[in-house]
Amino acid sequence: MTVTLKVIADRVGRSVTTVSRALAGYDDVSAETREQIRQVARELGYEPNTIARQLQKQRTDTIALLMPPVYPRLSDPFFSEFLSGVIEQANQQGLDFLVSHISSTDDPVDIYLKYIRARRVDGFILIRTIRQDPRIDLLRDKDFPFAAFGRIDGDNDFCLIDSDDMLGVSFLVEHLIELGHTRLAFIAEPLNLTKAYNRLQGFLQTLKAHNIPVDETMIVEGGYRQRFGRVVTQQLLERPDPPTAIVTCNDLLALGAMKTAQEYGLVVGRDISITGFDDILLSEYAHPPLTTIHLPAHHIGTMLCRMLIKTINQESVTERQVVIQPDIVIRQSTGAAP
Questions:
Q1: Nearest-CA neighbor of 227 among 196, 257, 251, 247?
Q2: What is the pTM of this model?
Q3: Which of 37, 254, 273, 282 is most exposed by smallest CB count within 10 Å?
Q4: CA geometry: angle at 257 spanning 256 and 262, to 5°?
Q5: Phi and psi angles of residue 247, each rounded to the nearest 5 degrees, phi first
Q6: 3-state class (DSSP) for residue 160
Q7: Three-state SS sequence of 263-326
Q8: Which of these, 287, 295, 279, 237, lies nearest to 258 by C-alpha position?
C-alpha cells in the first residue's frame, strides 16, 4: 500500500492539511501533534513526494559547483577536502549537491545563465575566482544566491571566504630571509587568479621591504600541479645563478619542485629550500616534510556551504566576508642558505 498524507491523517484523526504542515515543520501545529504525526509517518514508512514538495516551495533543494575549464582534477587533495566539507554540510541540510565541469569550449557565463533560467539549482558555490570575474558580475546582476571561495578586484559585496594570501607568502619569505636566503624564485599559478596574484604580491612586497632585488626572470607562472613545478625547477636549476630557495603557489607545485631538485642531486632543506601553500596531507609525509601555509580546506567548505544555504533561505549571514589568517608550518624542506 502506498502511504499518503491521507493515510496518515486517517490514522491520527487529523486533517490532511494538519498532517502536511506538521511534516513540513510549521509551528502553527503544536509540538506534541507534530511529534505524533511524525512518529506515525515513520512507523508507516512514509516517503515524501520530493518533486511535489519542490514544486510547492518553488525550490530544487540543490546547490551546484561548476568547475572552471582549467582546474586540477578531483584528485587534487586540497580541493577534495574542500569538496567534502561542502558535501557534508549540504547533506546535513537535506540538500543535493551537483558538481559539473564547464568545457573549455563553453562560455562560463552562458552555462551559469542556462542554469539560472532553467531554475536547475537554488544557488552556486564558486571557486577559483579571477580578478575580473564575469561569473560574479552575472550572479550579482541576476540577484541569484552564491558564495565564493576567493575575492575579486573591486567591490566584494557578496558572501565569500578567502585566505590572507599576501600575508601567508610574506610569512614564508620572512622565514627564508631569516635563514639567509637572498636569491629566491617564485612558481605561480596563472596570475589572473586572485589568489595567485595576491600570493605573488606578498612575495614581491616582502623582498622589497628587506631591500632584496627582485629578479623577474625567476618568477614563472602558468601551472597548478606537480608537472609544472618539475619543469620550472629544472629551468631554474640550469641557470648560471640558480636560486637557493623556491617559493611556490601551492603544495603540488612544491612537491614537483622537490622531486626535480632531488633528481639534480640536491638535498632539499640543505642545498635548496622549497615552500608550498595549503598544507595538504601529502605535505607532512613528503621527503622531506614540506614547509607551507596551513589552510583548513574542509572547514572552509563547510562554512561556505552554510553561508550559501542561509542566503538561499534569506536568513541573515552574520559575517558575509571571512578572511582566514594564515599559519606557517615550518618543516624540514627549508634550511639555512648554502
A1: 257
A2: 0.81
A3: 282
A4: 100
A5: -100, 130
A6: strand
A7: HCCCCECCCEEEECCECCHHHHHCCCCCEEEECCHHHHHHHHHHHHHHHHCCCCCCCCEEEECC
A8: 287
| Percent of the residues in the chain that have a pLDDT greater than 90, as a whole number | 70
Percent of the chain at pLDDT above 70?
Answer: 93
Q: Quick one: DSSP state of residue 212?
A: P
Question: In this structure, are residues 304 and 161 in contact, taking their beta carbons and an 8 Å threshold?
Answer: yes
- Rounded distance, CA 304 to CA 267, Å? 40
Tens-place pLDDT, residues 194-231: 999 999 999 999 999 999 999 999 999 988 899 999 99
| Positive or negative: CA dihedral 330, 193, 239, 253 | positive
Residue with C-alpha cell 629544472?
234
Q: How many Å apart are CA 129 and CA 151, to the nearest integer?
A: 6
CA distance 307 to 325: 19
